Amino acid sequence: MNAIPLHAIRACVFDAYGTLFDPASAAARCRDVLGDKLDRLNALWREKQLQYTWLRALQGRHADFWHVTGEALAFALETLDLGDTTLQDRLMNLYLTLDAFPEVPQVLERLKAAGLKTAILSNGSPDMLAAAVSNAKIGHLLDAVLSVEAVGVYKPHPKVYRLAVDRLGVESGAIAFQSSNAWDAWAASAYGMRVVWCNRYAQHPERLPGKPDFEIKSLAELPALVGA
Fold first, then answer.
1. Is 99 a catalytic residue?
2. Do the beta carbons of residue 212 and residue 196 sit within 8 Å?
């Protein structure tokens, strides 16, 4: 019996927002202005951000993630009576330098040392992802940073997951895909990837096609699963 739970893995591919980078860290730096509305803003901003990606995909009206993120923020600020363009500009600029979760650099280092390919596969626009990767100083630990802009549609469309297979030259069954977003984890599994659901936010399992191979609470648990 193989001692490695996910054997024959050749590449580890990561979702960006919520998995590698903390989307709540932008608003956290505006606590002085947001006060007790901080948590509500974070929740509503993220909710509308994802909703707008799905709705635009269904409508066939794609706009990049920077545009969608700005529209979602404008909605959230207005809903919470925080309609201040200065605050909106401040939050959007902070979104380019989100904090990486503490374990991320060491995890990527271990995966690379084990000879695995590493990549990001994200809804984020190329400029957004480049800024986040640069801020976190993890660019040298990644073989590819892949944006949905290459296929012109958002997750969970199968074209997005196929992008990782094509760009890395690794078959789907030899890719371990990590996401903190349950719907993303289920979709990648349905596509044929091996999936580790990093359930940072204590979500409940989805009722969708696919099923993650493993559920973890932190990416620090990942290397042991892939033999790194």
1. no
2. yes
- The residues near 108 (Cβ < 8 Å, ≥ 6 apart) are 118, 138, 141, 142
Which residue in the list 15, 64, 99, 184 is annotated as catalytic?
15
Tens-digit pLDDT profile for residues 148-203: 999 999 999 999 999 999 999 999 999 999 999 999 999 999 999 999 999 999 99
CATH of the domain at 75: 1.10.150.240
Quick one: tokens of 88? 């909106």
pLDDT digits (tens, 9 = 90+) for 2-36: 567 998 999 999 999 999 999 999 999 999 999 99
Contacts of residue 135, Cβ cutoff 8 Å, sequence gap at least 6: 96, 97, 98, 100
Residues of the domain holding 73? 25-95
Q: Is residue 4 part of a domain?
A: no
Q: Which helix (H) or strand (E) holds 121?
A: strand 117-122
